[in-house]
Amino acid sequence: MCQMKVVVEKQGAEQQRFEDVSSLSVDGSTIRIATLFAEAAEVKNAAIRSIDFMGGLVLVQQNG
Q: Which domain of life is it from (predicted)?
């Protein structure tokens, strides 16, 4: 089983990195990220920019 990583970028710079992501959900401009070993997190004013299924990476762009 391969877990995903999520990288959150703001103004072109990496702000947060989530490892071992087990689920990701989108509600409007809020992205909820759950991991295996930490509390779930919310990234507000954000959108998914790209998903690399082979590389196991989701790139999220946070605005504002």
A: Bacteria
